[in-house]
Amino acid sequence: MATMESLIGLVNRIQRACTVLGDHGGGGGEGSLWEALPSVAVVGGQSSGKSSVLESIVGRDFLPRGSGIVTRRPLVLQLHKTDGGHEYAEFLHAPRKRFTDFAAVRKEIADETDRITGKTKAISNVPIHLSIYSPHVVNLTLIDLPGLTKVAVEGQAESIVQDIENMVRSYVDKPNCIILAISPANQDIATSDAIKLARDVDPSGDRTFGVLTKLDLMDKGTNAVDVLEGRQYRLQHPWVGIVNRSQADINKNVDMLSARRKEKEYFESSPEYGHLAHKMGAEYLAKLLSQHLEAVIRAKIPSIIALINKTIDEIEAQLDRLGRPIGGDAGAQLYTILDMCRAFDRVFKEHLDGGRPGGDRIYGVFDNQLPAALKKLPFDRHLSMQNVRKVISEADGYQPHLIAPEQGYRRLIDSSLSYFKGPAEASVDAVHLVLKELVRRSIAATEELKRFPTLQSDIAAAANESLERFREDGRKTVLRLVEMEASYLTVEFFRKLPTEPEKAADKNTPVSDRYQDNHLRRIGSNVSSYINMVCETLRNTIPKAVVHCQVKEAKRNLLNRFYAHVGSKEKQLSAMLDEDPALMEKRDALVKRLELYKSARNEIDSVAWK
């Protein structure tokens, strides 16, 4: 079986590694490995002796002191037991700096607190992470939290009371958090802020350790034996009494090791507490917490391993989505580029074929936009009696037509057919815009491409260049359809039209009166009928031409030129695979997390079940 120190020491190392990688929540971060590993939260009211208890456990005077709210940010304190050598401290925010002077540690805590909160009495939930390495400590993780208070003092926000409680609760609510509830012995235990909060979040008392401070400051003739023996307020774990250094000792710079000896002497010589002396004092408290922490860790190993395995699977899946590192040789790079292109092409075709949204907009162009544009063409104005008279007269010239105004008919039909060019070209342009949008969407939806912004741009440029060619082919084709209708009129259509004998015009009648209204109206109606026939034809043939020249070509040959050219750009391949720095950073962070979790799993397995 693993020793207590090795198992807790391992957890400390894992928690520190998690902290370095940002895999913790500072009281949040549900589901993180840091949160799954048990730690001890130190809770108490302001001036309850909370900081003195911590210093007694560590055996060093290192915490800021003062009146009112001194702890204004959570302090995550990791104690690492060493086999010997010098004691030193390290902060996460200054990882390359070792502190051997603990007065400098105190100053650094104060400075780092001010860096976030300013030189005010405000608080922040951003934790300070401190590790202390010493032969005089037990392996333990303690979280020193701001002292609970009942009223805001000058310079503090009115919400400070609730803000502090919310912050403390964000830690002690966690089922893996052991609560060290600090209460001063010279106050009624029933009014203890720490006990009240602990009772709220841990009603069974399974996670709570009670600590009584300032036993030496109780009124003469009173004692705290009923509390320490669990008769006044019972917890699942034994109460521990602490005697902190007096202010006189602090002023004389009495070191903590000497203070521990004085504390031991106090309990052993006390008539009230002598029978409890072996279970009192900071040294006993540290060992008690360490033993309990070891038991909790061992009990939670199966769930910790389960979380680690689940997280490893999630990180592996994320890395698969982000893509693995690319080989440095040209062959591997070319293979990767072509593979990315094929992935993009698959997504693009899915958009067109209905597997993804967007392709239906092309049908919308043909079913809505084109018919609406054809309907708006100004044939009513163009084939009005006034315009028909004008065109027929101009076409006849000095010699009026004898039977039917064929030249007038042709002019009216030709000029009417030219109106179809606008809707035809508009359909080409509308489908072109849809295809461009689908290219953009497809690039964004191709997971494999997200890591290569340069390749994204190159593929987008190549695809859009192809779409421009397809648009030009489509434009030429639809205009040719319109020109074909004008090139050869359907004679049978006119031969089937009903005819009326025309009255001979009097040669002395003015030109403006040569044509009766009914005659002109019939010409306009005949031309309109023919134009409607052509309109129905074009309404069917323009979509066919657009799909053939643009959509089908986009499906078949969107990146063909890119494929042809990319093979000759051997020196540029690495530049095309230049990844987004943010994505590279994200993948590196995931790789480090993966290594951490795999290492943690192996170490926990090897240490816990020896």
UniProtKB/TrEMBL annotation:
GO terms for molecular function: GTP binding; GTPase activity. The keyword Cell division applies. Its main location: cytoplasm. Residues 520-610 form the GED domain. Keywords: Cell cycle, Cell division, Cytoplasm, GTP-binding, Hydrolase, Microtubule, Motor protein, Nucleotide-binding. Residues 34-302 form the Dynamin-type G domain. GO terms for biological process: cell division. The keyword Manganese does not apply. Pfam families: Dynamin_M, Dynamin_N, GED. Forms homodimer and may homooligomerize and heterooligomerize to form the phragmoplastin complex. Binds to PHIP1. Belongs to the TRAFAC class dynamin-like GTPase superfamily. Dynamin/Fzo/YdjA family. This is Dynamin-related protein 1C.
